[in-house]
């Protein structure tokens, strides 16, 4: 049962036994199968912070058709770039934040400026950021999207997910709605399905940065068993086919001992000049005790240009 598994892995006292959590770093091929035949296998996209695709490791969960796992394809500089973007640029107007409802920000001040650039620094606001939405804004009350509630998507995020979709041969994917979740070490994400989009056949891309998490994927109902998987910084989960309709959630955030955003690799770097050293110093302190998840989805059906 999904609920039982979620409750088990969420527990703090007693702490759950993690022996059954799938760890791609020590791959158990009885539970996942490697995908070696993918398109654009010899592409280099350093401009997106990615390693050459020939070096990627891609797996599919055997018990959940269409649940694809890309093991950290990002360079260290790429992780720095996307983490900083998620903190400095994306939680600002005209995008929507969970802070808006309680008017915790001035109209002329961004979350980044309020927390890190003002002389006194709003420490209490630092941990209150939970989500920001871009593109079509998901209404958490109605669970619907609206043509009257949307903002322009950042081109770099669209380019990133378009490239990921092309690598996996998901032709025609268009990023139209993005939710960025910000987790503290005691955060969870309750089990749910993503069904607000008109197009629920298009894949959903979920990109993790920062601290580790246990990702729980179940079946079409909460009565079906769930499978736990470790997510580490840079890992990408793609929910497609049957898995696109399945219950999933995050019952636990775990501290990481390995910090791939800090490693010194020799990959060609075209993003380094775009990450200000002072900004990265701030962002690296934040991510040392937090997790960021970029969730990208297509809203409209092929050929559809607006919501009805």
Topology:
Layout: H1 2-10, E1 32-34, E2 57-61, E3 67-71, H2 76-89, E4 96-97, H3 111-117, H4 123-126, E5 131-135, H5 155-167, E6 177-184, E7 189-192, E8 204-210, E9 212-217, E10 227-231, E11 236-239, E12 248-254, H6 277-287, E13 290-297
Antiparallel strand pairs: 1-2, 2-3, 3-11, 4-5, 5-6, 6-13, 7-12, 8-11, 8-13, 9-10, 9-12
Helix pairs in contact: 2-6
Q: Provide the helix percentage.
A: 10-25%
Please report the distance between the alpha carbons of the first and last residues. 37 Å
Number of strands: 13
CATH topology annotation? Jelly Rolls
The helix/strand order is HEEEHEHHEHEEEEEEEHE
Within CATH, the superfamily carries the name Alpha-ketoglutarate-dependent dioxygenase AlkB-like
**Strand order in the largest sheet:** 1-2-3-11-8-13-6-5-4
Class by alpha and beta content: alpha+beta
Multimerization status: single chain
If you compute it from the alpha carbons, what radius of gyration comes out, rounded to the nearest whole angstrom? 19 Å
Number of domains: 1
Average predicted local confidence, pLDDT? 92
Shape: globular
Q: In percent, how much strand structure appears in the residues?
A: 15-25%
Tell me what the structure shows.
The chain has a single domain, classed as Alpha-ketoglutarate-dependent dioxygenase AlkB-like (Jelly Rolls). It contains six helices and 13 strands. The protein has helices at residues 2-10, 76-89, 111-117, 123-126, 155-167, 277-287, and strands at 32-34, 57-61, 67-71, 96-97, 131-135, 177-184, 189-192, 204-210, 212-217, 227-231, 236-239, 248-254, 290-297. The strands form two sheets. A nine-stranded antiparallel beta sheet has the order 1-2-3-11-8-13-6-5-4, with helices on one face. The two termini are 37 Å apart. The model has no long low-confidence stretch (mean pLDDT 92).
